Amino acid sequence: MPNQRRNSILFTCLGIALVMLFLANISLGAVKIPLTDVVNALTGNHASKPAWDYIILSYRLPKAIVAVLAGMALSVGGLLMQTLFRNPLAGPDVLGLSSGASLGVAFVILGAGLLPGALGIFLMSGYGVVLASVAGSFAVLLLVLAVAQRLRDTMGILITGIMFGSFTGAIVSVLTYFSTAEQLQKYTFWALGSLGNLPQQSIIILTIVTIIGLVLAISCIKPLDALLLGERYAASMGINLKRTRFIIIIAASLLTGCVTAFAGPIAFVGLVVPHLARLLLKAGSHRILFWGTLFIGGILMLFCDMCTQLPGTAAVLPINGITSIVGAPVVISLLLKKRNRTY
Amino acid sequence: MKKILSLLFVALLAITACKNTTDAPVATVQATTNAIKHAKGLQLYKYKGFSLVKVTQPWPNAKESYTYVMLQKGATLPDSLKQYTVVNVPIKSAVVTSTTHIPSLEILGVENTLVGFPGTQYISSEKTRALIDSGKVKEAGANESLNTEIIIDLNPDAVVAFGINSTNKTLNSLEQAGLKVLYNGDWTEQTPLGKAEWIKFFGALYGMDDKADEIFSKIEKDYHDAQKLAQNIKEKPTVMGGAMLNDQWLLPEGNSWAALFLKDAGANYLWADSKGTGSLSLSFETVLEKAQNADYWIGPSQYTSLKQMMEANPHYAEFKAFKNKKVYSFSTKTGKTGGLIYYELAPNRPDLVLKDLVYIFHPELLPGYKLQFFEQLQ
């Protein structure tokens, strides 16, 4: 019982932290906007400058929403993968989806010359990168599902995913070798991820797909707990392994693929957050872990997004650099504090 | 094995011994004045029978400089110059490595001497494209990575290369193969006329110094004329530039090549005060706050239409210049194989770039002028 009380207190704190960080994220940026103006803009009154209204409502607010969505989606995706493969090093991109997306985008940005004229021009348009990313992730997903159908062993799927990663990585390397400095810069920037500048439609799509992925994940909470004890045990409890595996893979793919398509390959958060949730909540059950991961994912991503803005300068740091710089030391220090944790 | 080792040892001794021989007595070369006015990384000294070309800025912040002796037929070389790379001019064949070198060859009328180029698909000029299509210009590698074997096989009289820094493995092996490799630093120049003056480098290579001088003087005069036109204008329109790459807005710094054009064209570039010759990377918020009401938007990266810009980033529509369709880009004009004509020709023809900009900002000054590089985006 005291445990339950502790958890409810923790979740209240996490909820408050999420809301506070969301507001802080909108209040801070390259342009200094007084808090009263921020509140005015958010409550439908007008800030003292029209440009500020636009910055808060049309630039910062969507960016904060995308940060929360991406953080939640990737973290839950990571949790699903870590449990399915019983591997603490698994992240949302372990199936090779991000690599697939990277390959698709590399073809658009670096290999545009290889695409036939009309297709090349279409893919160089604003939506080209998103479409290529979706196509790449989807192609890898189909391959993974085909492998999952044929292999009884979950580890086999993990190894296949890693192989896809190496394979696509190699093709991207060859493409980069034949690219101009400008193309390389574009591709590198894409690979560093970006939460801003998404049109409204994209944010709506991202929201819908994330919700579908999360609902699928919630439907798997019970089998996930059983999987923690091993596949055989889960099967003996009457869980349909193949079907569960299929749903988990689809959910993780939707969550990862969609974020990657719109915001680039920001994967590290998804690897870190489930660990943070386990360490913080001291729980192994997915009923608690899932929600913990969800909240912490949103919080961490909002925090990382705030760190991308160097205080007092107009320069912006890439989100992917920050996630690892912030995330890695946190996990290491938490692990050192709790040396006896078992996974 | 022993034999090989001892042979190696002897060889080593021989090499070190060679190194230690002192130079032959120096025959002094009379001083003359540098024929270069605007380019900071190039010096040219003309003598009877030969000229000295000094490339002092082969890449940004270079510690090394390179001296090349352009020796005319029948002239004797002073002993003091034997340590430098000596090129017998006029050269009959060349491999050049940057599209910015192509217009210089064409203006001098020597594009027929081009035998190889790395990344021929980036060349836009129709004259040279015809040479590529007829097989006279060979593909000599891919994009900044020269194919050593192909170039050695082509055996040109000179390889005009550029280095990003002092480690250039491929160029070193070409030199070891006995080819004359010359660094061209046109891309490190930061002023419009400085870049254009590098035509004199090619003039020296082809023994056409006078022709190169004449061509450059004309470009210089036209540039100054256009500059003077715009100087007396009271109303200077405000200008923004660049576009977003992910979360960063990249635009030219205040002392850069692009920013100097705007200044000379009688415009008020909003970031003219920023120091530096590269590009600024700013957040969207910063740019919006400063440039939301800018009159013109020049050079929005790779975009070729307003629709395309909107698709890429809906925030662009917030700018007055965008709303009023005062967005001008050079990305719409490409060669047959997709290379941007601006990147190839603009460094050589700053006079045309400046006239374009003067016409955009003050059409009344150049009635009937037709834009060469820029185009108003629709």
General description of the model:
The complex is a heterodimer of chains A (343) and B (378). Chain A is an all-alpha fold and 343 residues long. Chain A has helices at 2-27, 35-42, 50-84, 97-109, 117-123, 128-150, 154-177, 181-191, 200-219, 221-228, 231-236, 241-263, 268-281, 286-307, 319-337. In chain A, α1 packs parallel to α14 (286-307), α3 (50-84) packs parallel to α9 and α4 packs antiparallel against α8. The mean pLDDT of chain A is 84. Chain B is of the alpha/beta class and 378 residues long. In chain B, 34% of the residues lie in helices and 18% in strands. In chain B, β6, α3 (126-133) and β7 form a beta-alpha-beta unit. The longest helix of chain B has 23 residues, at 209-231. Chain B starts with a helix and ends with a strand. The A-B interface holds A 29-31, 49-52, 54-55, 58-60, 113, 125-127, 177-182, 185-186, 189-190, 192-197, 199-200, 264, 308-309, 314-316, 318-319 and B 121-122, 142-145, 244-248, 280-286, 288-289, 292, 302, 308, 310-315, 318, 338.
Write the layout of secondary structure elements.
The complex is a heterodimer of chains A (343) and B (378).
Chain A: H1 2-27, H2 35-42, H3 50-84, H4 97-109, H5 117-123, H6 128-150, H7 154-177, H8 181-191, H9 200-219, H10 221-228, H11 231-236, H12 241-263, H13 268-281, H14 286-307, H15 319-337
Helix pairs in contact in A: 1-3, 1-14, 2-3, 3-9, 3-12, 3-13, 3-14, 4-6, 4-7, 4-8, 6-7, 6-12, 9-12, 13-14, 13-15, 14-15
Chain B: H1 2-20, E1 42-46, E2 50-55, E3 66-72, E4 85-89, E5 94-96, H2 101-108, E6 114-117, H3 126-133, E7 138-139, E8 141-142, E9 145-146, H4 148-154, E10 158-161, H5 169-176, E11 181-183, H6 192-196, H7 199-205, H8 209-231, E12 238-241, E13 243-245, E14 248-252, H9 257-264, E15 268-269, E16 279-282, H10 284-291, E17 296-298, H11 306-312, H12 320-323, E18 327-329, H13 341-345, H14 350-361, E19 375-376
Parallel strand pairs in B: 3-4, 5-6, 5-10, 6-7, 10-11, 12-15, 12-17, 17-18
Antiparallel strand pairs in B: 1-2, 2-3, 8-9, 13-14, 14-16, 18-19
Helix pairs in contact in B: 7-8, 8-14
